[in-house]
Amino acid sequence: MAQKPEIKIILDRDYRLSDIDERIYGSFIEHLGRAVYDGLYQPGNPLSDEMGFRKDVLDMVRELKVPIIRYPGGNFVSGFDWLDSVGPKADRPARLELAWRSLETNQVGIQEFSKWARLADSSVMMAVNLGTRGIPEACALLEYCNHPSGTKYSDLRISHGDKEPYGIKTWCLGNEMDGPWQIGHKTMEEYGRLAEETAKAMKLIDPSIELVSCGSSSKDMPDFPQWEVTTLEHTYDYVDYISLHSYYGNKSGDSLDYLACSDDMDGFIKTVIASCDFVKAKKRGKKDINLSFDEWNVWFHSNEADDDIMQNHPWQQHPTLLEDIYNFEDALVVGLLLITLLNHSDRVKMACLAQLVNVIAPIMTEPNGGKAWRQTIFYPYMHASVYGRGVCLMPSVKVTKHDTATHENVTDVACTAVYNEENKEITVFAVNRLLDSNVDINIDLRSFGNCSIIEHIALEGFDLKAVNSAQGETVVPKNLNTLSMDGGSVLNGALHGASWNVIRIKVEK
Question: Are the beta carbons of 502 and 427 closer than 8 angstroms?
Fold first, then answer.
């Protein structure tokens, strides 16, 4: 007789994994498709402000509480000359953008994006070009952005109207340099040496910055994880993080197996941590290299259309590239990936949902100035960012499991718990991965004293293929009243099949 699906969780206020770095809820804007032009920036649109930034998009970004945004790429950065993007707009050249075979007008650049990020209540994670450029250009860009005055590039910034430095503190040393698709692709040794010397020089200019070294573009790269080991043997003394990138999709059409893909992310993270710690031990180092999972999301719906545009219709301005329309099961997967990141928040300190607007994004705008709307994945991302601030707890979990086509011992429910001590709130995030079966849930909260349920938010009850659109957002959260708190210390109830759940609990004392 099959065991009834259930999950039992014990939470203890003293069993803590890590303080959560809010930058784990970061995102990404690349000069790609309609992310910047027709997304963030539409001068002349009645919905835009005097600088051309769409106010409705800004409002949605603020709703997500995005703490940091990676910019300007991505593959784009490996062909980017940053000097093209500053100064009077009339003087900025249009360029053939080789990564995505588009026409880049440079009407939005570092000056504009820095202003936009401030309006969005966010900070910038800046990437430097180590594909077709190198140490001098990276140092010049840092000087332009962060040095007060009295030098060639800081005075150039001032002449462009920005007296105060931008104060960008997080910098990526290139992008996906292990990938043969990357312009200026490097071997492990080539990238390790270049990143080491670039990092050394940049920290001489501004010792307060944090640096992210390029890790493998995915766990399926042929030189993973040797890339991490070899490059870190060069960069260990100068960098603070190593990057991870991974995208997921239901290409097989097997939804149960798709909902197990967060286990692949979990294994990827564990292997990168082991690689970092190996280098630390080999160097007899004292610091941990933490992780920046600065590209992650679902991406597969638009692949065929993307290939057609780039191959058969190149050199368009802001073409409709990577415009995945997400369905309900994609939202469940995004929730599962967020849970996985939080469960590694002791080492994953930054992460970027790729991307933010129009390009594989939670926020979409209709082409040519139409309305903005929220995709299905907007909601788990928003819930985690808003309610997932504080300390990630280390729950004791007993849960039933199942196998899928390509995964074994998959937990019926994936979960994590966050304690916000200042607000006296516990938030449990949980996804029931079973498609048609409820899972009984029991949460023991006795170490917290008397507790009460604030609310139970859920995404549930939708067709797995249901989508939102500009014509109507049908996949939206609902508040449920199906859980109970027994004696102020034990929560009981059920999580419905195929559901994202946010259980908010008040600690009374």
Answer: yes
Q: Is 422 a catalytic residue?
A: no
Asked whether the beta carbons of 354 and 335 are under 8 A apart, the reply is: no
Amino acid residing at 293: F
Gap between the Cα atoms of 30 and 42, Å rounded: 16
Based on its alpha-carbon atoms, the radius of gyration of the chain, rounded to whole angstroms, reads 23
Whole-angstrom Cα distance, residue 500 to residue 484? Answer: 18
Residue 1 lies in a domain: no
Its sign, for the CA torsion 411, 377, 174, 153, is negative
Task: Specify the residue for token string 């309006």.
Answer: 119
* pLDDT tens profile 98-140: 999 999 999 999 999 999 999 999 999 999 999 999 999 999 9
* Distance, CA of 142 to CA of 70 (rounded, Å): 15
Is the pLDDT confidence value at 1 over 60? no
Q: Is residue 370 located within the same domain as residue 424?
A: no
What range does the domain containing 317 cover? 21-387
* Residue 51 vs residues 46, 107, 113, 337: alpha-carbon distances, Å: 12, 11, 11, 35
477-486 long-range CB contacts below 8 Å, 24 or more apart?
A: 477/379, 477/383, 477/502, 479/455, 480/456, 481/456, 482/456, 483/441, 483/453, 483/456, 484/453, 485/451, 485/452, 485/453
pLDDT tens, 448-457? 999 999 999 9
What is the average pLDDT across 36-61?
96
* Per annotation, catalytic residue among 295, 323, 425, 460: 295
Q: Is 295 a catalytic residue?
A: yes
Measured in whole angstroms, how far is the alpha carbon of residue 95 from the centre of its chain?
28
Which of 387, 419, 448 terminates a domain? The answer is 387
Q: What is the mean pLDDT of the chain?
A: 97
Beta bridge partner(s), residue 41:
37, 53
Confidence band of 159 (pLDDT split at 50, 70, 90): very high
Distance between CA atoms of residues 105 and 74, nearest Å:
17
Q: Is residue 2 pLDDT above 80, yes or no?
A: no
**In sequence order, which residues have a C-beta less than 8 Å from that of residue 5 and are 6 or more positions away?**
400, 412, 434, 437, 438, 439, 440
Residue 452 lies in a domain: yes
What's the CA gap between 27 and 44, in Å, rounded? 26
Which alpha helices (DSSP H) does 223-283 contain, by range?
226-235, 255-258, 262-282
CA distance 427 to 14: 16
In a domain? residue 270: yes
Same domain, yes or no: 419 and 376? no
- Could you tell me the CA-to-CA distances from 291 to 26, 261, 295 in Å, in that order? 13, 20, 12
* Residue 292 belongs to a domain: yes
pLDDT-derived band at 179 (thresholds 50, 70, 90) equals very high
Instruction: Give the CA angle between residues 98, 117, 421 to the nearest 5°.
Output: 125
Q: Greater confidence, 368 or 465? A: 465
Looking at residue 264, its pLDDT comes to 98
Among residues 176, 228, 323, 425, the one annotated as catalytic is 176
Q: Write the CB contacts of 59 (distance below 8 Å, at least 6 apart in sequence).
A: none
